[in-house]
Specification:
The chain has 233 residues and is an alpha/beta fold. 37% of the residues lie in helices and 10% in strands.
Amino acid sequence: MTTHSIIWDMGGTLIDTYPSVDRTLAAVAARHGHALAAATVARMTRRAIASAIDELSERYAIPHEELDAAYADLKRSWADAPPPVMAGARDVIDHVRRIGGLNLVVTNRDRTSAAALLTATGLAMDDLVCPGDGFPRKPDPAMYRAVLERNHLDPVDCLAVGDRAIDALASEQVGIRCVILETPGIPVAGDGERITDLRRLIDRLAPSPGPVTSWSGPATSRSSPERSQQPST
């Protein structure tokens, strides 16, 4: 079966939230006398923002509540000054619509924050599933199962896209193939397909009935992630 629909993760995949998060946490560390390189913070946040805050607090004796407050302030600021949509995401969303598929979001983010980001960035998605809807967080597969059932989709006709191993662990448990978006220079643990440019997804979907929209960048493989450059989840 040819793939028509995409189930997107949000932060770090659909929306480029990581750079502002990295800067915010690094600024808190700097106030406590720790000048951390952007790459140092980035490697922490790519595992999980919550675990990055835990690690920064423990390693550098920074009050946990100060890091939490800075991150909460940043999320509130996104209502008026949202982070950018990830490079190539709008191209893929448009392609999915042209081929009659659905653009769906499954995220560990709370619904208020997720909905605010979609509104602020002007992204009109077909469905949004969050833990606040009564589901456990990824890597539990319940949110992926729910989005399939709610939208009457065959998992074989869907492609999941995320930026962490938990996205693959969760989606693949319900039969959805997953592609991981990596930030160049910051590899993601685990196996599976990797890309560094979302437009590579178009070649994994059904062809458009209109003009050809396939991505003609360098080839990628499951064993050797491609290294094309992309604005930095």
